[in-house]
Amino acid sequence: MTKLFHCSPNEIQSISANYGQFDGALFFSLQPYSLSDSPYTYEINLSDDEIIEVSCLECDKSVAEIKDLASRYLDLEISEDTAIDLLNADESIFDLLESEDAEVDFMDASEFDWALQGIQAKAANNMGYTAAQGYDEQGSVYIINLVNKEDLISLSA
């Protein structure tokens, strides 16, 4: 079992699809970590077979959602292959925008990237996994969609 931690500035009562910037997904790490004052630390225990690497994600629904997201957030039409590369983190939106020489606001690209991480968590759930393990500016992260699954986490002692 792997014990993972999520630090929160607020006590978590319930998690809906509209919870936070990630459509109900929370980020966990192997050690308690927070960029802000976060007095609440939650934990979850997962076995290895409940975790999938982001690079292994496959989900047609997620690919369509990513294409739609790129169109809405960035006014950018992307191919199915590019959407798959974004889902699997084979390519980042920032690298893609640079290679396309697209003029997109950094904040819009960041919003897209955060929404993409929420999609990765949902894709993991659709494939039967609890968490998608990915990497961000803080290192290894575990993205878990907890919509209506608050019972999976507990306050850390």
How does this model look, in words?
This protein is an alpha+beta fold and 157 residues long. It has helices spanning 60-74, 80-87, 93-100, 106-126; strands spanning 2-8, 25-28, 40-46, 51-53, 131-136, 139-145, 154-155. It folds into 2 domains: 2-55 and 129-155, no CATH class; 57-123. Helix content is 33%, strand content 23%. It has a 4-stranded mixed β-sheet. A 3-stranded antiparallel β-sheet has the order 1-3-7, with no helix packed on it. A hairpin with a 2-residue loop joins strand 5 and strand 6 (139-145). Helix 1 (60-74) crosses helix 2 and helix 1 runs antiparallel to helix 4 (106-126). The chain starts with a strand and ends with a strand. The model has no long low-confidence stretch (mean pLDDT 88).
Work out the strand percent: 15-25%
Question: What's the helical proportion of residues?
Answer: 25-40%
Number of domains: 2
Overall geometry comes to globular
Please work out how many helical segments DSSP would assign. 4
Radius of gyration over alpha carbons? 16 Å
What are its keywords?
157 residues, 2 domains, four-stranded mixed sheet, alpha+beta
Give a brief rundown of this model.
With 157 residues, the chain is of the alpha+beta class.
Helix and strand arrangement:
Layout: E1 2-8, E2 25-28, E3 40-46, E4 51-53, H1 60-74, H2 80-87, H3 93-100, H4 106-126, E5 131-136, E6 139-145, E7 154-155
Parallel strand pairs: 4-5
Antiparallel strand pairs: 1-3, 2-6, 3-7, 5-6
Helix pairs in contact: 1-2, 1-4
